[in-house]
Hints:
With about 160 residues, this protein is of the alpha+beta class. The chain has a single domain, classed as Actin-binding Protein, T-fimbrin, domain 1 (Orthogonal Bundle), CATH 1.10.418.90. The protein contains seven helices and six strands; from the N terminus they run αββββααββαααα. The strands form three sheets. Strands 1-4 form a two-stranded antiparallel sheet. A hairpin with a 4-residue loop joins β5 and β6. The N and C termini lie far apart (about 40 Å).
Amino acid sequence: MTQKAFALLIHLSKFCSHFAVKKVRLIPAKDIGVNAIDLNPMHEPLTTETIWAIIDDTIDDATVNRLVWESLGYRYDEATKKWDATKVAPNWQDKYPEPPDFIDSRAATIQLTRSIPVANKQLLKEKLDFKGYKLNELNPRRTRRATAASWLLSYMQDVGQ
């Protein structure tokens, strides 16, 4: 892994749980066989605009995952090069010692859905007037992104944002 690609990945891992990325740009990193993420250093608070960006698919999946991971309490430890789940609720720690890919994992998304308090289940509809997707727009990826958006909106409600 090149030093620049590593620095970009570490910068991403420092992403604070209460912030969203204003701009994300994927940089091809052929020498490491993956895409590194270049973050704009200007962060903004997690807002309803961020939630809409998740629903409208204008924020990439990696950022959606990162927002949920950080909000759940997962932190990347630079010293050990491993994920630290000590601030994650025990029910998540036990099943997912490392943060799951919520866009790819049906099981993780089901657990995320179940962790939304009943009082917050309709927040997308009530606060954002989100009417849902049309039938021809539905697919597992979009549904899982909407679940992440719903969970993040519930998180915002619970922490008073």
